[in-house]
Write a structure and sequence with these properties.
By secondary structure, this protein is α+β, with helices and mostly antiparallel strands. Helix content is 46%, strand content 22%. The protein has 2 domains: 40 residues; 103 residues, Nucleotidyltransferase, domain 5 (2-Layer Sandwich), CATH 3.30.420.
């Protein structure tokens, strides 16, 4: 459940807001299915992009050791919905940070090496995380990539 659905369930938002949310959600599902169909027909390259949950390394169950030795590891995944090819960019907090430029570098590398050879239009689905996807650095990089 998303935040809006939980808020409606807890009666924190009115029904008209919830209905508008459901309408947008249904439209997004319809558009995604339409894009999947185009991908299956070989008309487009269709990608989903996500930063998976933080993994702590090493994995420890003893709480006193946990706080002294933890290292946050991240997994940025680019998945082709048509070919089912996944690329996982695994990095820890000493190698890079969670800034937009980190994700731009991973995504552009993936586009150049896995999508350009196909010479098809590219459609990408991603979450709404601002530092990861919805920012001017990502927009400018993708705009420059397209030109």
């Amino acid at each position: 459940m998303c935040d809006v659905c939980v808020s409606y369930k807890e009666k924190n938002i009115i029904e008209t807001e919830y209905n508008a949310h459901i309408k947008r959600k249904d439209r997004a599902k319809t558009e995604k299915q339409h894009d999947k169909d185009k991908g299956q027909a070989g008309e487009v390259t269709l990608l989903t992009i996500d930063l998976e949950a933080v993994k702590v390394c090493p994995y420890l169950t003893a709480s006193t050791l946990y706080f002294k030795t933890k290292l946050n590891c991240h997994n940025y995944t680019v998945y082709n919905l048509v070919t089912q090819h996944a690329t996982c960019y695994w990095f820890d907090e000493t190698a890079s940070n969670l800034t937009a430029s980190t994700f731009v570098n991973f995504l552009l590398y993936n586009l150049v090496h896995h999508c350009l050879p196909n010479k098809l239009p590219i459609i990408m689905f991603s979450g709404d995380c601002t530092y990861q996807n919805r920012n001017n650095i990502m927009s400018n990089a993708l705009s420059a990539f397209c030109v």
